[in-house]
Amino acid sequence: MLEKLTGALTRYWDIFIISLPRIGLALLIVIVGVFLAGWVSNIFRKHIGNKADDPLMRRFLSRTIKVIIIILVCFLGLQTAGLSGIAGAILATAGASAVVIGFAFKDIAENFIAGVILAFNRPFNVDETIQIDNTFGKVKDMAFRYTRIKTFDGRDIYIPNADVLKKPVINYTGSGFYRMEFSVGIAYESSIDKAMTIIQDCMDNADFLVQDEEHQNFVIEDNLSASSVDLKVLFWVETADYRKGSLQIRGKMIRMIKEKMEEAEIYLPCPIMEVKNYQPAGKLQLTCDQG
DSSP strand E in the chain: where? Predict the structure, then answer.
């Protein structure tokens, strides 16, 4: 028994020694292939991919090319090492176990397929401001399994591609324009027409607003509150920098309208509180501090 075991080990050792050059060559092919895959991917991204207008597509395709080259190099290495049977077995096993693997890695496969679909057809681009559920920020990257969004408070949020594909996506910067609004309350004794004319003049003379036939800025009567008549101001801004730029423009409009209202002696009233005394007798003494 020992002699048979020793003989078998000796034969396997001899086979290994004979196959050693092919195994070394196979390892060399794999190592060189991995470096080659990275080099080809970088060449595609820097030279060919730069001609594309879609940076997310460029990154996705460069990564896909790298993965495909590495897989082909690994199979070539197995063939060179004389392990073609293993390569064929891997392919056969992959086909036979596709269903089992599909159930086991359902989420991974779903996100990967969604990533492929989003690479060719999606409602956003890099550096555009989007909202998915409660996640609001700029798109920074898209990988095989997730999309990375940078929120405006500095957090990196990774959303599975399947969620990006299935859930509603609100794109705030896709068209380049966004309509903002705020309310202005004036006293009941003030002239509504005069106030609306002042607000409209402010928007017409603001060169930092978007004003054309498609994007019109206007003011409307919105609500009768307890202490004021509320006017709603609606105007269009460019959204290249949605969070900072649009909020700064909104602040400029609020400041401008307030100053023009004060010049025209149209004041913005404070909330009025009505106090009732339900006691049948006695007096209610009130004091007013004018300081």
Answer: 129-132, 135-142, 146-151, 156-160, 169-171, 177-186, 218-224, 229-238
